[in-house]
Amino acid sequence: MPRAVSDGGENLNGADIGGSRASSHCVDSTGYRVSFPPKKSLLQEFSGSVKALFFAGDDPLRQYKEQPSWSKRVWLSLQNVFPVLEWGRHYTFGKFRGDFVAGLTIASLCIPQDIGYSKLAHLPPEIGLYGSFVPPLIYPLLGTSRDLAMGPMAVVSLMLGSLLQKEIDPKMHPLEYKRLAFTATFFAGITQAALGFFRLGFIIEYLSHAAIIGFMGGAAIIIALQQLKGFLGIKNFTNNTDIVSVMKSIFKSAHHGWNWQTILIAASFLGFLMVTKYIGKKKKKLFWMSATAPLISVIVSTFFVYITRADKHGVAVVKNIEKGINPPSASLIYFSGPFMLKGFKIGVEAIAVGRTFAGMKDYKLDGNKEMMALGTMNVVGSLTSCYIATGGFARSAVNCMAGCKTAASNIVMSMVVLLTLLFLTPLFKYTPNAILSSIIISAVLGLIDYKAAYHIWKVDKLDFLACLGAFLGVVFSSVDYGLLIAIAISIAKILLQATRPRTALLGNLPRTTVYRNIEQYPDVTTVPGVVIVQVDSAIYFTNSNYVKERILRLLEEEEERQRQQNCPQIEFLIVELSPVVDIDTSGIHALEELCRALVKCKIQLVLANPGPAVIQKLRSAKFIELIGEDKMCLTVGDAVKRFAPKAVDGV
Amino acid sequence: MPRAVSDGGENLNGADIGGSRASSHCVDSTGYRVSFPPKKSLLQEFSGSVKALFFAGDDPLRQYKEQPSWSKRVWLSLQNVFPVLEWGRHYTFGKFRGDFVAGLTIASLCIPQDIGYSKLAHLPPEIGLYGSFVPPLIYPLLGTSRDLAMGPMAVVSLMLGSLLQKEIDPKMHPLEYKRLAFTATFFAGITQAALGFFRLGFIIEYLSHAAIIGFMGGAAIIIALQQLKGFLGIKNFTNNTDIVSVMKSIFKSAHHGWNWQTILIAASFLGFLMVTKYIGKKKKKLFWMSATAPLISVIVSTFFVYITRADKHGVAVVKNIEKGINPPSASLIYFSGPFMLKGFKIGVEAIAVGRTFAGMKDYKLDGNKEMMALGTMNVVGSLTSCYIATGGFARSAVNCMAGCKTAASNIVMSMVVLLTLLFLTPLFKYTPNAILSSIIISAVLGLIDYKAAYHIWKVDKLDFLACLGAFLGVVFSSVDYGLLIAIAISIAKILLQATRPRTALLGNLPRTTVYRNIEQYPDVTTVPGVVIVQVDSAIYFTNSNYVKERILRLLEEEEERQRQQNCPQIEFLIVELSPVVDIDTSGIHALEELCRALVKCKIQLVLANPGPAVIQKLRSAKFIELIGEDKMCLTVGDAVKRFAPKAVDGV
Fold it and tell me: Which residues cross the membrane (chains A, B) (predicted)?
């Protein structure tokens, strides 16, 4: 059955070279031996790890080192802290035109959204608007992104609201509730800035793409369901966010609590919003229709309610929005006592959610610098009556499509919101709540990325499980619990991979010196008298025992199979170490045990292509001396050639 | 600088074959294309994962399938549950002789140890002895190990004692304390058995070898320090286990609390024990000296105290040990109320420690079956006044050296303990506590494996950090806290590896088609116009962004270097995927981003040797269509040959 071939072709190049170096006993057939990487001092190793962990392997001071003069270095540092200094110098009127149009567009989108989102957080509507005034002024000075449009975000608002109301009832104690919200915002900002400053942004990377998709889908459904309160005109509604409580609330009120006038308004404008959104998606040029549709809906519906006085027929309206710009709120923040700690905790959870979303759509850039910018923005926001703001990506996408050129579009938006706060708030008096619900529903439905979920299902089943777990956690329990499930599943997945790595038998691709997985390459032939095994992971304490068992098991099976084919006795076990990028003391221990087990069956262990980390540790642990230096080969092909030359030269 | 060569040798074998298959556009130079593994159904994938996770990739029913008749299958199942049925059938008198001698030897070791260990757990001495009577009777019926000798163990006793006394004061409420101890034992047994039954034993694999070494060393020091109470004859001693409290306790009592007679006895016998131990280690044949030394010390010192009536001069003695065999204790276990939960928690923590130790010295065998045996043993033990027993490895080592043939040596030991309990307990009346302290100190000093710690330091610095963390946690805080630190560091290490994998540039080993890490192999030459990068980990959400950044950074650096050498423009980026054993949706997403970034610089992405999992997912995600099927190569050598043939044929 083994189709070993004998044409000269596979007599690899190195054969002749091997001869010329044959004086050394461990020269292999390609003329090279397995090399050791240069030894690094402890300090070098440590600084290498720190660079890898915090600076993506880059030298953080590289750009400074390249600059000769001190003044340039100072200027560089200033630019690093305030990116505006860089793009501001090249700012032109042409760019401003783009930013101006984009700013107007996102302002028209954000004003109705802000009012709606503040309701999700159980805060007065003007606080939502404040959040689109101060934060977008701060961000352009510090942030690195061109497209990100700042302001309150749906899921963060929901999260904040549901966490805050666990502590304080927003209806009974509105002032304390507001104070706690500012406290949470302040500490969220501090945490963001600190994580960014210490370059710990990577901590939040422990959420997989799949878990985020699931989490977002769940949050979108929860938010949409919550909006049914305004949509159906229900007065008594549950405070819980899980689907069971909400559905109960809705059906309990079905007989008398629904208001048909409200439903009519809400449904017709939801239809309008969805249609414009669909058009905007189909024809990129008409995106402005979907961007301005919310504001148009607000204006039209407000006018309609004002004329028909529908508010007297049970249609709930926004009523008063406080006029004027953000009042200072530094004195409202709890800097001591139990509410400080609670605010801190809530703030951290809320930014975890916010960051999650930011990570979604390629808005990563320099994650740590970005976090410092967001943190500073939120600290300033918390001192000026704003709650947690972040880069919402619905509005960021609109910003981008509207042709923004720099972060200055945020400033334009901010100015529009300023004018609204100063002069236009009375106009919102008759705006029906139902229209805000419709706007939010149409906004969050876009977060349900069923296509991505299907894609995940097709590509990776385990990933889909994480997605589903996060989704169900949010929908059936609560937002923070869903987040926890998402993190847990994500980490469990990594640990699982580290615990049960794949192992495979390799075979020879006929007429080559290439050895590949026999499951993947049906053409390969096994080499009589030799078993070749590949381990698909670093060998760590989590899998060292398993790897040993698996290798012995594969050896046993292959031995049995070869015996049935009347092949010669197995004499060598070759372990392909290319995918074994690292090993620890438990792993070396397992290899030693493997060796001992093999000695009993008179089989010799040969290692192929150990990488730098592995070879260094095997040497330190004196494992190389145990199996003999000639048993370390550069490739599997070399190993077979050296130890089973007959099998390759043709039996 | 690139030393590309032109001798025919490197024109790999496949060149001619390539021609014969050239009809297909993606045939590569060795004549093979990258294959896809056969598609598996969802069920096959799932059952494959389950087998890997729970049965080390083996078919659990394999042995049954091989058996034709039902009666044989039943017999096989019985043998699986009761391994005694297998080895019992071949039991001979010769084997019994070995077991008898071994049993006597370990009995002489265990009796003084048991009395001492029960003091660590703050339990009466007879309960320690009970633990060497019933559990060693149960284990041989169910257990798979030949060498393991059952009974109380030092660290588990310490852990149990320190956890229990946090709940109940053993001096004030001895009965309640005992009840809680039995409750903890009961639930420890249930947990062990359940973990074993559901094959979840692997959960406890999340403790690295290094962390265990550190933990054990710390525990040994803590135990030894605690023994200074008996050793120095101190009456008032702290209940805390951390080194600071203990040292304070000792120095506070230095003026008046020490008893010179006690110290004299303790020190001289400790010397005796250490010397015999040293001899036993040096000459394997004299191991019986170290095995019987404890019993000899007890006999001699007891006799000495009896004659001199040293107990009247402040030498504390054991006093009464209850005569008779284990009383039933089922009625003492808390099956409800808060103490049930506490007992449960304590039990679980204690077996986590016990299991840790079991994992130390190759006593792994069939971990899950073993855990079921230990669990059953402890459940029965808890019903017969024993506290948690496990396979102590000091006595297991002695058992092995004394020539035990089967688990029956446990039964012999059990019988000796039975006789002791029935007839010999009064003889321990004058046994000085100091001698027990000496025995425990000499026993646990062997747990401080400084050689292993040094070995870890030499081989793997990060592992050493885990070791040190666990050690310091135990010594300066408490046993359970140390365990927690050990687990946390162990898991953090895996996550770190998954977050910041190594990346490297590859180069060509002149005159071969082998490409290797340029840091490891100083001989390699780079290929002009091509950058070859290797990523040393599965690409997951934790590292996808980092990997992308690193690849781009390496590309940039290499581009700069090649430009300085006047090499042609970089046209291809080859990514060696051999170590990339898996990828998830985030990883594919990162590759797509990489592609997009490369398109901007007019560089094409080529992937070399994608494994089965990677190629399948890349196909499902339509990534292969994105970069083109001809960009998937079997080896880096093929890729270079196909896309930069000039560079290889000699520039």
Answer: 180-200, 206-225, 258-280, 286-307, 411-428, 434-452, 464-492
